[in-house]
């Protein structure tokens, strides 16, 4: 009996250690996200802020102002209405983000989407790792009055959501088609706790937001095709889409 108790205690300690390590890694990770604000009315400007930062020791997203913020300006953004018309959003540097705006001229759901494929290769050759080329997508939806849902992707990796009651229905796309069944999504809530979802055969998943604030829904895809970019060889390309959902 004594040995059994000791075994359980050791196993419990290992579990807590692994959990602490996981949250430590999450806390130190950096990422891009999108903040959208406006009145929700026709002919009143909508502001988007493209941010880069990391999670502090208290689980709060903090905007960075270093080298990566400068690279944020390489994002190209467009806004698309449910009728398929779209226009480019010009970004301008601010103190801790890049900012742009657009003017909604009709009721509807506007899909905001951006891509940054200008990142340099992540060179891990000196540590014996694999070189990787990152490509980042950002997206969000903005509703003006009543409108229909944009039900088709506007970029290679894309995410679209809608509500059924309090439940959020997530539709994910890869190369114009629903993402593969079994694909894992990561959802970060406003406190930056992480939940993993698995896509069904329709490329969909669901979750229920529990607190107000910004949720980030992440889809990753790895293309194993090797290549060279700006003189540096890479073994694969990591595509990442962060969909930013503000729950109020």
TrEMBL record:
Keywords of the record: Signal
Signal peptide coordinates: 1-27
Protein name: Nickel transport protein
Species assigned in the record: Mucilaginibacter jinjuensis
């Amino acid at each position: 009996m004594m040995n059994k108790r000791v075994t359980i205690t050791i196993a419990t300690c290992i579990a807590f250690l692994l959990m602490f390590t996981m949250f430590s890694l999450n806390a130190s990770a950096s990422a891009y996200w999108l903040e959208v604000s406006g009145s929700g009315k026709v002919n009143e400007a909508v502001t988007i802020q493209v941010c880069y930062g990391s999670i502090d020791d208290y689980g709060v997203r903090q905007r960075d102002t270093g080298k990566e913020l400068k690279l944020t300006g390489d994002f190209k953004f467009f806004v698309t209405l449910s009728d398929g018309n779209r226009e480019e959003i010009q970004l301008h540097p601010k103190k801790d983000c890049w900012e742009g705006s657009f003017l909604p001229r009709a009721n509807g759901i506007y899909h905001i989407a951006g891509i940054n494929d200008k990142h340099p290769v992540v060179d891990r050759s000196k540590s014996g790792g694999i070189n990787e080329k990152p490509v980042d997508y950002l997206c969000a939806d903005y509703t003006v009055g009543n409108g229909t849902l944009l039900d088709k992707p506007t970029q290679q990796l894309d995410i679209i959501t809608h509500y059924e009651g309090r439940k959020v229905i997530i539709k994910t796309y890869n190369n114009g088609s629903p993402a593969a069944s079994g694909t894992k999504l990561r959802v970060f809530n406003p406190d930056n706790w992480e939940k993993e979802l698995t896509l069904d055969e329709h490329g969909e998943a669901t979750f229920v937001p529990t607190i107000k604030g910004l949720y980030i829904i992440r889809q990753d895809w790895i293309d194993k095709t090797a290549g060279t970019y700006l003189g540096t060889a890479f073994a694969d390309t990591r595509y990442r889409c962060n969909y930013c959902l503000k729950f109020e």
